[in-house]
Amino acid sequence: MTVSQGVFLGTSDFAATVLGRLAASEHCPELVVTLPDRKRGRGRRLQASPVANAAEELGIEVLKSADVNAEGDREKILAVGGEWASICAFGQIIKEPLLSEIPMLNVHPSLLPRWRGAAPIERAIMAGDQETGVCVMRLVAGLDSGPVALRREVPIGIEEDFEQVSGRLADLGGEMLVEALELAVDGTIEWTEQIEEGLTYAEKVESSERRIDPAMAVCPVNDLIRALTPHIGAYIELGGGERLGVRRATPAGEGLLADLEAGSFTEREDRLFFGCSDGALELLTVQPAGGKPMDVASYVRGRGVPAASV
């Protein structure tokens, strides 16, 4: 039988996976705190967060808080008690006095101090990093700057996209959080202060970054596509304001169609290639505006080869 251990704060799909692992351990939280319902999807219907849905399925009480630092919600959190709380991809800044009133273990999907901030997985893939990982740290006032208790490294496969990397890291993060809570409760947890060397910030991905610039080289374009698939999506801007989403691609290979003009498309036996500054990128899965992702052969047969990008 699980033992209730305080509060878990989280909102995202990643955090929902971590919560599931936590709930299956002896550190099942008594209260889950998440952001309020918001409009999502094409229909812009009001929907609960992934963590709220997961908590309800697990039978855990949910507090949907617009501001955990406000007196009312803060008091609800403190009333639950527990030696430690845990937090993962929550979406709000924890301020004083709550920050000092209950210690929190924070699950962060990067190898701190590299990629502190909002989009560590996307930024790691976009930068062409060959590895990433998970850190469990003590939450402090600075952005992801607290001392680290646990750290695990994970390779990034050359064809892996955000969904694949995030899924592996979330599973690992849940296991590490359980381990860290056990150490914390036993009083044997040890901390390592972060160094500033190698510090980078993972800023939120802006809408303008989704657009594929043909002036970029092939590998950075492919990294961008992998980093934004499937949750955000990269696209090529065509004439007339039309967008062609690109969900999966691969470098065409050294020398293959090396003379393809940047921004141009060409088709070879139902294979579609896009010119970049230093060569060609083969598009494998695309998404027409208003449509669903499809393989390139189906797209070319139904719509033909697009005109050059804008």
Radius of gyration of CA atoms, rounded to a whole number: 22 Å
Structural class: alpha/beta
Low-confidence stretches: none
Annotation field: number of helices: 8
Please summarize the sheet with the most strands. Answer: 7 strands, mixed
Q: How much of the polypeptide forms β-strand, as a percent range?
A: 25-35%
Domain unit count: 2
The CATH architecture term of the largest domain is 3-Layer(aba) Sandwich
Annotated CATH topology of the largest domain: Rossmann fold
What is the CATH superfamily classification of the largest domain? Answer: Formyl transferase, N-terminal domain
- The shape, in one word, is elongated
SSE order: EHEEEHEHEHEEHEEHEHEEEEEEH
Helix share, percent:
25-40%
- CATH class descriptor of the largest domain: Alpha Beta
Average pLDDT across residues? 94
Structure write-up:
The protein is an alpha/beta fold and 310 residues long. It has two domains: 7-202, Formyl transferase, N-terminal domain (Rossmann fold); 207-303, Formyl transferase, C-terminal domain (Methionyl-tRNA Fmet Formyltransferase, Chain A, domain 2, Roll), CATH 3.10.25.10. The chain has helices at residues 13-23, 50-58, 71-80, 98-101, 120-126, 162-186, 218-227, 296-303, and strands at residues 7-10, 31-34, 38-40, 45-47, 61-64, 85-88, 104-108, 116-117, 131-138, 148-155, 201-202, 234-237, 243-251, 265-268, 271-276, 279-288, 294-295. The protein has a seven-stranded mixed β-sheet, with helices on both faces. The protein is elongated and about 65 Å long. The model has no long low-confidence stretch (mean pLDDT 94).
